[in-house]
Amino acid sequence: MNGLLCYCRQGFEPELAAELSERAASAGLAGYARTQRNDGYVLFVCEEAAALDAALPWRELIFARQKLRLIEELRALDPSDRITPMLAALPRDARYGELWVEHPDSDAAKPLAGLARSFGNALRPALRKAGLLSAKEDTRLPRLHVVFVDGDHAFLAQSAPADASPWPLGIPRLKLLPDAPSRSALKLEEAILTLMTPAQREQHLRAGMTAADLGAAPGGWTWVLTRQHLHVTSVDNGPLRQHVLDTGLVQHLRADGFRWQPAQALDWMVCDMVEQPRRVAERMATWFREGWCRQAIFNLKLPMKKRWDETRLCLELFAEQAGKPLQVTAKQLYHDREEITVLATPRQRG
């Protein structure tokens, strides 16, 4: 089988299928999506799999938590011996740097977690004996994925570590610390980890930088920024948790975050306000057009229908109205729900 296997949030399979179909068509590649709602994954079948893989970088896919290149689909696996057909399906000259045995993040597939763990322990030595798996993790080699969708139905796939999520199932396992003001803090923490490379975090998140948090109460995103040692203006008519104010890095302004503007340019603006996505996109664009911030992370709350169309429209609207060249990356993060998170930074020259 040729094509891609991509994980997504359960219920967003149509959005991911539409995104893959449109991006493949834009790259001049013929193919079709195969999925069912609530499966937690989408297959995109394409004979030009290598070209498709190159044309759709993981970081540029909005609704894909993970991107894998298909090797084989195996049905009617014998529970007493699943290893033999898998070894037979792998190319003899293949060599992998790591094995991940997974299942989609869906209600139907979650009971397969135990099988995935135990099967991985059995498959690793068999792969090494066959010369297919390195003795130690090697990120220079492709990663092998075995994805169980049922006890007798699995996909074999591979990923390039540099062009894939670094977490099994595409899910960063973040812990909500006791002093986090709200669970929304996890969204900004995940955005910083997922949307920014280590080099970008070092360059763009430095102690002493200035930021605004629009719609800040009760202070989850402000708290994350103070942990990066940024000075934050938190704008909200609602209260912030006292321990956030006690950091000495926060100025709380009781104002409408959607209307407020800074007196001077800030390094960062973040926004997780509940508002129509087009209105948010326009307001975020105003911040860049007026020079009020240099970079931003914001959420767009999506409607219940035509979510891919709305996503594309909002991102195009933001890019058109921002008035300057920006590098824009958007993802539906694990800690997002009916929304996507957008990172906008100055476009690097050259």
UniProtKB/TrEMBL annotation:
EC number: 2.1.1.186
Residues binding S-adenosyl-L-methionine: S184, A217, P218, G219, G220, D236, D256, D272
One GO term of the biological process aspect: methylation
Domain RlmM ferredoxin-like: 1-68
Annotated compartments: Cytoplasm
Coiled-coil stretches noted in the UniProt entry, renumbered to this chain: none
EC class (word): transferase
Annotated InterPro entries: RlmM_FDX, RlmM_THUMP-like, RNA_MeTrfase_FtsJ_dom, rRNA_MeTrfase_M, SAM-dependent_MTases_sf
GO molecular function: S-adenosylmethionine-dependent methyltransferase activity
Catalytic center residues: K301
Limits of the Ribosomal RNA large subunit methyltransferase M THUMP-like domain: 81-159
GO cellular component terms, A-Z: cytoplasm
Any Pfam family the entry gives: RlmM_FDX
Transmembrane segments: none
Residue intervals of the Ribosomal RNA methyltransferase FtsJ domain: 182-274
Keywords, sorted A to Z: Cytoplasm, Methyltransferase, rRNA processing, S-adenosyl-L-methionine, Transferase
Catalytic activity: cytidine(2498) in 23S rRNA + S-adenosyl-L-methionine = 2'-O-methylcytidine(2498) in 23S rRNA + S-adenosyl-L-homocysteine + H(+)
Oligomer and partners: Monomer.
NCBIfam families: PRK11760.1 (NF008734)
Family that this chain belongs to: Belongs to the class I-like SAM-binding methyltransferase superfamily. RNA methyltransferase RlmE family. RlmM subfamily.
Function: Catalyzes the 2'-O-methylation at nucleotide C2498 in 23S rRNA.
Protein name, per record: Ribosomal RNA large subunit methyltransferase M
Originating organism: Pseudoxanthomonas composti
